[in-house]
Amino acid sequence: MSLYKQLLILISALFLLVFGVNLTLSIGNSKTYLETEAQSHAQDTATSLGLSLSPYMKYPQNPTIKAMISAIFDMGYYGEIRLTDANGSEVVTLANDKRAEGVPAWFIALLPISPATANSEISSGWTISGTVYVTVNPAYAYASLYRQAKTSLYYSLATLAISTAMLVLLLRVTLASLKRIDQLAQTIADGRFETMTPLPWTREVKNVALSMNSMSQKIKGVIHGLNAKLETIGAKLLRDELTGLFKKSVFETDIRQLLMDHSPAFLLLLKVDSLPELVKAHGSDAIDDLLRGFSAAIQQQAERQAEKTIKAYRFYGGDFALIYETENNEHIENLCKGLTGEIFELGKRFDKLDLAHIGASPIDPTDTPDNILAAAQEAYEQARLIGANGYHIQTDRRLSRDISTWKALVFECIERQHFTVSYSGEMRNFQDNRIILQEACTQVLDEQGQAVPIAPFISIAEKYAKIVELDQSVVKQALLHIRETSITHAIAVNLSTRTIKNADFLNWLESLFKTDGASARQLIFSFSAYAVSKDADAFVSFFNHLHRLGGRAMIKRFEPQSMLPPGIVKRLQPDFIRLARDIGNGISRWPKQHDFVHTLLEMAQLLEIAILAENVQTDEDYLALKTIGIKGASR
User: Fold this and answer.
1) Range from 129-133, 425-429, 599-603 carrying the lowest mean pLDDT
2) What is the per-residue pLDDT across 322-363, written as a single tens digit (0 to 9) for each?
3) How many C-beta atoms surround the C-beta of residue 630 within 10 A?
4) In this structure, are 389 and 412 located in the same domain?
């Protein structure tokens, strides 16, 4: 029950009690007054009648006596007048049993009034000649009391109604501020740190509002501070400490994103040859200078290609890479020539004229990251055969399947349901070791029974608008698995951006929650942080819709290079955030990763988001993640 109803009922009950007591006392006082007045009136009548009859009582049968008594009795206020002589014999008896008209029987029974009776002795000279008895009829007292009770009741009810109306108005005005404070608390819980203006006029409520405003701003400041710290730590995690270039983990993420986006690009591998011999000849400090100079040369050439997107990476040792988003071979040729010149000049400083070689290969969206990297490695090996500081651009790659074959395979598998769904990656709760969730993984086999790389399969399905049908089929199989196995943990299902924008899928999902809500609530819809960052508004809309249905969502592969701004995370309100593998692995050895996860957890706790880690390899890392306080991890 709301506070408004509680106060209204309580105060109305108090008002009703006060008015009831007042009404009861008023009626009781009126009854007492009427009884007293009736008794007094009876006594006055008996006394005056006794004095009037005194001269005639020598002859009790005198008709004048009866005439005088009748004259008094006919006034109608009396129930009985009786005259007796000195011997106690009745001389005159007049009675009136008239009842009170218009007075309910329940009122008479509730408020009984005893008839007022009085007597007066009649003297004739020095002797008592008789006694007159007068009884007042209570019917008139009942009628008067009933009229007064009704009048008092009407006025009391009118006063109560007016008081209640004023009370309702006062409570609405007063509690409206509390309602605004409640709404402010809800917005803070939802991750929107607003303030309440204008402030309430009630002093106590105003103080509460000021405290809420202060708390909201402090939490907002804490989250912004944590996000700034996350960005700083994340930026350090992305970069190689020696050269300042991006790490291999960033490269792997970028390759996956390029394949998802179908963006035309080239991969260039650059390797400093015979690095161990150079270390022996020049020492480690000199080699550090060499690697910094090599990375500077790469960055300078990248900056000269300002009209195109180009990104540089250092894998380890003397292995470097470039991703150049272009499909123009001439651009790649110019870049390689520029790099060769820079490498030659750098090699002269270290008496190494044959310092490095470059291999370039196009990135095909239907291929896998491993195949793309292998093709670039093959081009690098070809460059080593060309000559000192040579380069080779591979342009005639032959893939196992061309685009038309891929398209036919995708359509065949999706339309005829030629795929299976397995469940792996048991995510366990650190507290009780129970399974939190498993992930639904789609597996596709070609006509020869060979496994089809799932990344290009999904990419082609997305390109030709078959992904919605695939996602819906996977959800159905996951629900069937939940029902048949009676599992209690959740199943994470990956959905594409195209799917969450599809009106038919959203309508189907809504009907699913209505018809089989228990099983549907065991699903966790999963999305990569990169996909969410590309179309945040669409995901905010889907997450809000999903939460209204009672569903849950997870953002996976959360890492510094695809980290979402806190404002977006607050709008999304995901139920889970799953860290990228490279963040959880090695956390026991690398303080920067530890600080990143710890800071992310602090922010997530304020937003009521559970943090998970994926595929943790070592016991030391598993224990470190448990100590930090995240919810769970898979191994």
Assistant:
1) 599-603
2) 999 888 888 888 889 889 888 888 888 888 888 889 999 998
3) 22
4) no
Residue 87 — φ and ψ, nearest 5°?
A: -90, 0
What is the reported pLDDT for 396? 62
Q: Are residues 473 and 327 in the same domain?
A: no
Tokens of 460: 């082609």
Determine whether 551 is exposed, middle or buried from the number of CB atoms within 10 Å of its CB (0-12, 13-18, 19+). Answer: buried
pTM of the complete model? 0.65
**Does 302 map to a domain?**
yes
Selection from 339, 309, 307, 312 nearest residue 325 by Cα: 309
Give the phi and the psi of residue 415 in degrees, each rounded to 5: -70, -35
Residue 336's SS3 state is helix
- Cβ neighbours for 124, distance < 8 A, ≥ 6 positions apart: 54, 55, 57, 58
pLDDT tens, position by position, 33-88: 888 888 898 899 889 988 888 888 878 888 888 888 888 888 767 889 999 988 88
3-state secondary structure 394-441: CCCCCCCCCHHHHHHHHHHHHHCCCCEEEEEEEEEECCCCCEEEEEEE
Q: Is residue 398 over pLDDT 60?
A: no
Instruction: Give 246's DSSP letter.
Output: B
Same domain, 30 and 52: yes
Chain-centroid distance, C-alpha 576: 14
Token pair, residue 281, equals 């000849």
Q: Are strands 265-272 and 356-363 parallel, antiparallel or unpaired?
A: antiparallel
Provide the mean pLDDT of the chain: 85
Helix axes 454-463, 467-485, angle to 10 degrees: 130
Angle at 215 between CA 211 and CA 219, to 5 degrees: 175
Whether residue 427 sits in one domain with residue 408: yes
Q: How far apart are CA 184 and CA 216, in angstroms?
A: 9
574 occurs within a structural domain: yes
Given a contact cutoff of 8 angstroms between Cβ atoms, the answer to whether 58 and 114 are in contact is: no
Rg, Å, the chain Cα set:
49
Laid out side by side, the sheet with 309-316 consists of 309-316, 319-325, 265-272, 356-363, 391-393
The dihedrals phi and psi of 350, each to the nearest 5 degrees, come to -115, 20
Are residues 297 and 279 in contact, defined by beta-carbon separation less than 8 angstroms?
no
Q: How far apart are alpha carbons 600 and 629 in whole angstroms?
A: 11
Place 147 in a pLDDT band, splitting at 50, 70 and 90: confident
| Tokens read off for 561 | 């290079």
Would you say residue 195 lies in a domain?
A: no
Q: What is the DSSP letter of 128?
A: E
Cβ–Cβ under 8 Å, residues 402 and 460: no
- The answer, yes or no, to whether residue 514 has pLDDT greater than 60, is yes
